[in-house]
Every structure is written in C-alpha cells, then in structure tokens.
Amino acid sequence: MSTFVVVGLQYGDEGKGKITDVLSAKSDYVVRYQGGDNAGHTVYVGDEKFVLHLLPSGVLQCPGKCFIANGVVVNPKSFIKEINQIESKGLKTDHVFISRRAHVIMPYHILMDTYREEEKGGTEIGTTKKGIGPCYEDKIARVGIRMIDLLNPEILREKLEKNLKVKNAIFSKYFEKPTLDIDEIYEEFLAIGQQLKDRIVDTEVELNEAIQQGKNVLFEGAQALMLDIDFGTYPFVTSSSPSTGGVCAGAGVPPTALQNLIGVSKAYTTRVGNGPFPSELHDELGEHIRKVGHEFGATTGRPRRTGWLDLVSLKHACMINGINNLVITKLDVLTGITPLKVVTHYKTEDGKIIDYFTSSTHKLYHYEPIYEELEGWTEDITKVRSYEELPENAKKYIQFIENYLGINVYLVSVGPERSQNIIRKELF
Ligand code: GDP
Ligand code: IMO
Ligand code: MG
C-alpha cells in the first residue's frame, strides 16, 4: 500500500498543482476527490504553461490513470474543453476517467451561483461562479444529476423536468430572470453523455484494488483547509471538504488506506475572494508580494490578497488533516524582504492571547495578529537544489515553521518550474 494525499493548508493556490505534477511521475493513479472547475492548478513544463481546473494535475506525466472520483462536481463542458486543450499540445488524455457517481454541474447551477452573488452586492462570498455550491446542494438534497444519468435518456429527462420546475420558478419569480428551456439542455447533455461514455466508469473498485496491490495512488486536493465547508472561515468557504478526510467519502477509500498526508503551504499567505484574513498586508509590501509572486487567480484572474504566514491557522489545518509531510512553496518570493513576520498568536477583542483558530468567523475580523520577526535574506535561491545551500536565514525561517508545527518540511519549492525543488527526502 502506497498512498499519498496532497492538500492545501491555506486559502487555496498554494502550488498543489506543481507538487502533484512532480509526484505524479511515479504514480499509478492520480485522483481528484472534491471540488470542481473552481480550482486552478498551474503547472509549468519548460516554457509551456498548463492551467488545470478539473483534470488532475497528474494528467501531464502520470504513467497510469487519472480519475475524477465520485466526490467531484463535474462540468462536462469544462472537461471536454480541457481535454481538447491538452490534446492540442500533443499530450494524450485516454487515461482520464470520470466516476459514474460524480454529480454534474448543470447550466442552472452556474446561473444560481451567479445570481446569488450579484444579489448580495458587497456581502458576497466571492465565489468563482462555476456553480459549485448549487451543485453540491442538489447532491445533498438528493435531486442531483449524476454522470451515469447522462447515459440514460429517460432518467435524464425525468430529473431535468423536476429540477427545472423548481429552478425556473426561482429564476423568474425571485431573481426576475429568464427561465431555461428543457429541450435545449436535454439534447445538449444527452449528446455530452454519448461523447464521454467511454470515460464514465466506476472508479472506487479499481482504486481499492490498486491500493491493495501496493500501487502508488496519489490523491490531489483542490482548494484548501481554510476554505473547508466545516473547518474553514464559514461562510467564506467552498462547498466541499478539501481535507485529507474528504478523500474517504470523495473517492470511496477507507481511512486506513491513507498514509502520506502532504500539506502544502506558501511561505506567506494569499486569499482570493472575500472573508477574514488577519495577517493581510494592505501596503506596498503586500503589492510587492503580489507582483513578485504573480498572485492573480488562475480561474478568475482576480488579484489575490496577500499577507504574512499565519502559523495559527496553519496549525489548525495540519491538525484537521493529520499532516505528516509539509511542503513550503514560493520561498523565493520572500527574497529581499526583511524582517519577515509570521503570526504565532492572536489577541482577541477582550485582550486574551490565544494560539488556536476560532470557529467565530465574525470575530476573526477583530483579532490582532501577534508576530514573531525573523531576519530575511537577499541571495537568489531559485537555483538552489539542496537544503544545505540555502542562506542561513532561509533555513531559520523553515526551521521556525517546523518547530512551531512539529512537522518536517520535506520539500521546499523555489520557483514555478518542475525542477525548482529542494527535496529533503524522497517519499517514493
Ligand atoms: P494551486 O491551486 O495550489 O495548484 O496553485 P496555483 O497554480 O493556483 O497557484 C500557484 C502559483 O504559484 C502558480 O502560478 C505556480 O506556477 C506558482 N508557483 C508554484 N510554486 C512556486 C514557487 O516555489 N515559486 C514561485 N515563484 N512560483 C511558484
Ligand atoms: P485551488 O484548487 C483559491 C474560493 C473562491 C471563494 C470561495 C468559494 O486553485 O486552490 P466557490 O466557487 O468554490 O464556491 O468559491 O472559495 N476558491 C478558491 N480560492 N483557490 C481555489 O482553488 C479556489 N476554489 C474556490 O474564491 O472565495
Ligand atoms: Mg489555484
């Protein structure tokens, strides 16, 4: 048994795609288990840039199979678009499959997401407007359309009729927007089902067999723990469980099967979308980090908010995920900044000093972060490949994180390229 889970520990965009791509070279399976095309995972291969939204980042060099498992919400049009993009660059995609159980993002989910966000005018979550939340709502309400339904004309028609009755009433009466035509959607999604039929399979049995046979199975998380529906900054979260725990329900594998739990964090923090961010920088330094780190959303193009590394939230994320291997990315972006600050505690509204994350999201806006200052470095580290060669202060920064969290950093990323990694121990 050799399983690996890569998850984000912050607010997304930690560089999970790059790490998954690197690990996928030795993986027999790479599996997405939650979220949908709200994700944006960037992988650089030489001068070529790939941004994967729905396909596992393993698609580029995994010698085995790539699965989009049952827990993912699938926009099949995005799937086809991405497959075409990858194929147009000369890469194969016949190793990519979707679970029959995965729920389908329908046009009404996207509209519902969009209208709701528009309606809130300033208090919106700042979603990607990809229909993620509304699709998961229908799944939980047991009215969702699954990939397997696209292959059955009667069931698809029946489910569409029931759904559109309700959705069209909300669109016309509540949002005062146009209604949707059932025939158009029915024909389109029936055709999509036929186009994808050879890729729609049962993924859980094969995955469990692979795990039993000791194959390398890599689960790729999208989003991150601070966007987790339960443990993130609710309601400013996504609608799934991007934690390691999410793998079990999202791919149909038992908790006992999960071994290497890899948590990815940037050397600082970013957030795209709304919600509290105690260590956010609103000054020139924040702008500098955004510029040097190219901090613009891979899915929506929005500028990412930037700030110092928050060890209190990172500890919370490591605890919920049970992380046993840490990855720190974008250390190169901090070059030239001194002093560096990291959050070690918060001061609450009533003056209490705490080092744990709160469930009261609204209070977090009023918490004052307490920082530890560390000296920076000026040397270019983008070409460093061994930990020993890092500047002393960069090592001290990494050690400070390790000591605070009590977890070893096994990989430090010093640039967007596949090769720009300092690997301290090979996981497999
Ligand atoms: P993901 O959603 O977690 O896969 O992350 P994104 O791809 O959305 O955002 C991470 C961005 O940082 C991408 O543009 C990566 O190419 C880039 N990146 C990843 N690791 C590093 C690194 O160590 N240094 C620098 N400078 N960029 C990196
Ligand atoms: P990756 O996988 C960063 C954010 C949105 C919004 C909130 C809810 O690239 O790390 P949603 O559309 O999911 O209902 O939006 O979650 N969000 C992300 N932020 N990276 C992502 O994915 C994200 N996926 C969703 O900006 O704040
Ligand atoms: Mg991203």
UniProtKB/TrEMBL annotation:
<feature type="binding site">
    <location>
        <begin position="40"/>
        <end position="42"/>
    </location>
    <ligand>
        <name>GTP</name>
    </ligand>
</feature>
<dbReference type="GO" id="GO:0046040">
    <property type="term" value="P:IMP metabolic process"/>
</dbReference>
<keyword id="KW-0460">Magnesium</keyword>
<comment type="subunit">
    <text>Homodimer.</text>
</comment>
<dbReference type="GO" id="GO:0005737">
    <property type="term" value="C:cytoplasm"/>
</dbReference>
<dbReference type="InterPro" id="IPR042109">
    <property type="entry name" value="Adenylosuccinate_synth_dom1"/>
</dbReference>
<dbReference type="InterPro" id="IPR027417">
    <property type="entry name" value="P-loop_NTPase"/>
</dbReference>
<keyword id="KW-0479">Metal-binding</keyword>
<feature type="binding site">
    <location>
        <begin position="298"/>
        <end position="304"/>
    </location>
    <ligand>
        <name>substrate</name>
    </ligand>
</feature>
<feature type="binding site">
    <location>
        <position position="304"/>
    </location>
    <ligand>
        <name>GTP</name>
    </ligand>
</feature>
<dbReference type="GO" id="GO:0044208">
    <property type="term" value="P:'de novo' AMP biosynthetic process"/>
</dbReference>
<feature type="binding site">
    <location>
        <begin position="12"/>
        <end position="18"/>
    </location>
    <ligand>
        <name>GTP</name>
    </ligand>
</feature>
<dbReference type="InterPro" id="IPR042110">
    <property type="entry name" value="Adenylosuccinate_synth_dom2"/>
</dbReference>
<protein>
    <recommendedName>
        <fullName>Adenylosuccinate synthetase</fullName>
        <ecNumber>6.3.4.4</ecNumber>
    </recommendedName>
</protein>
<dbReference type="InterPro" id="IPR033128">
    <property type="entry name" value="Adenylosuccin_syn_Lys_AS"/>
</dbReference>
<feature type="binding site">
    <location>
        <position position="13"/>
    </location>
    <ligand>
        <name>Mg(2+)</name>
    </ligand>
</feature>
<keyword id="KW-0547">Nucleotide-binding</keyword>
<feature type="active site" description="Proton donor">
    <location>
        <position position="41"/>
    </location>
</feature>
<dbReference type="GO" id="GO:0000287">
    <property type="term" value="F:magnesium ion binding"/>
</dbReference>
<dbReference type="GO" id="GO:0004019">
    <property type="term" value="F:adenylosuccinate synthase activity"/>
</dbReference>
<dbReference type="InterPro" id="IPR001114">
    <property type="entry name" value="Adenylosuccinate_synthetase"/>
</dbReference>
<comment type="similarity">
    <text>Belongs to the adenylosuccinate synthetase family.</text>
</comment>
<feature type="active site">
    <location>
        <position position="139"/>
    </location>
</feature>
<feature type="binding site">
    <location>
        <position position="142"/>
    </location>
    <ligand>
        <name>IMP</name>
    </ligand>
</feature>
<dbReference type="InterPro" id="IPR042111">
    <property type="entry name" value="Adenylosuccinate_synth_dom3"/>
</dbReference>
<feature type="binding site" description="in other chain">
    <location>
        <position position="128"/>
    </location>
    <ligand>
        <name>IMP</name>
    </ligand>
</feature>
<dbReference type="GO" id="GO:0005525">
    <property type="term" value="F:GTP binding"/>
</dbReference>
<keyword id="KW-0963">Cytoplasm</keyword>
<feature type="binding site" description="in other chain">
    <location>
        <position position="302"/>
    </location>
    <ligand>
        <name>IMP</name>
    </ligand>
</feature>
<feature type="binding site" description="in other chain">
    <location>
        <position position="223"/>
    </location>
    <ligand>
        <name>IMP</name>
    </ligand>
</feature>
<keyword id="KW-0342">GTP-binding</keyword>
<feature type="binding site">
    <location>
        <begin position="330"/>
        <end position="332"/>
    </location>
    <ligand>
        <name>GTP</name>
    </ligand>
</feature>
<keyword id="KW-0436">Ligase</keyword>
<comment type="function">
    <text>Plays an important role in the de novo pathway of purine nucleotide biosynthesis. Catalyzes the first committed step in the biosynthesis of AMP from IMP.</text>
</comment>
<feature type="binding site" description="in other chain">
    <location>
        <begin position="38"/>
        <end position="41"/>
    </location>
    <ligand>
        <name>IMP</name>
    </ligand>
</feature>
<comment type="pathway">
    <text>Purine metabolism; AMP biosynthesis via de novo pathway; AMP from IMP: step 1/2.</text>
</comment>
<feature type="binding site" description="in other chain">
    <location>
        <begin position="13"/>
        <end position="16"/>
    </location>
    <ligand>
        <name>IMP</name>
    </ligand>
</feature>
<keyword id="KW-0658">Purine biosynthesis</keyword>
<feature type="active site" description="Proton acceptor">
    <location>
        <position position="13"/>
    </location>
</feature>
<feature type="binding site">
    <location>
        <begin position="413"/>
        <end position="415"/>
    </location>
    <ligand>
        <name>GTP</name>
    </ligand>
</feature>
<feature type="binding site" description="in other chain">
    <location>
        <position position="238"/>
    </location>
    <ligand>
        <name>IMP</name>
    </ligand>
</feature>
<feature type="binding site">
    <location>
        <position position="40"/>
    </location>
    <ligand>
        <name>Mg(2+)</name>
    </ligand>
</feature>
